[in-house]
Amino acid sequence: QPPGERLQLLLRRSREAKNCAYCPYSRFPVGAALLTASGEIFSGCNVENACYSLGVCAERTAIQKAISEGHTSFRAMAIASDMGDFITPCGACRQVMREFGTDWDIYLTKADGTYIIKRLEELLPLSFGPEDLKK
């Protein structure tokens, strides 16, 4: 787990990213903040499109930003929304996260700021990853 101050920053950055969401169709803003192994934080928000299938989730936006800056090793991600219950990543995001390992923490938050921690391997059990292509 990230140290307390770093964790609070990660959670805050996910909430801030949520405020940038472009979601005129679903009106369901989501923000994500990704902590790299080197300690950098990359945030992302969901971006919808009138051609619905071309939209992208906050989690994938944050991952793509980190990768475009040369980072492929991650320690944690916080996800924020306005839901009264804990926000969870969709299946596509879980698979994209899985590309980069299963041993990192996902902080699922509620609108009131409370959170629970899940390991990625808990969110996507019996997953398929890069090592399976080498078998």
UniProtKB/TrEMBL annotation:
Zn(2+) binds at C57, C90, C93. CDD domains: cytidine_deaminase. SUPFAM superfamilies: Cytidine deaminase-like. GO terms for biological process: nucleobase-containing small molecule metabolic process; pyrimidine-containing compound metabolic process. It comes from the Eukaryota. The keyword Zinc applies. This is Cytidine deaminase. It comes from Aegotheles bennettii.
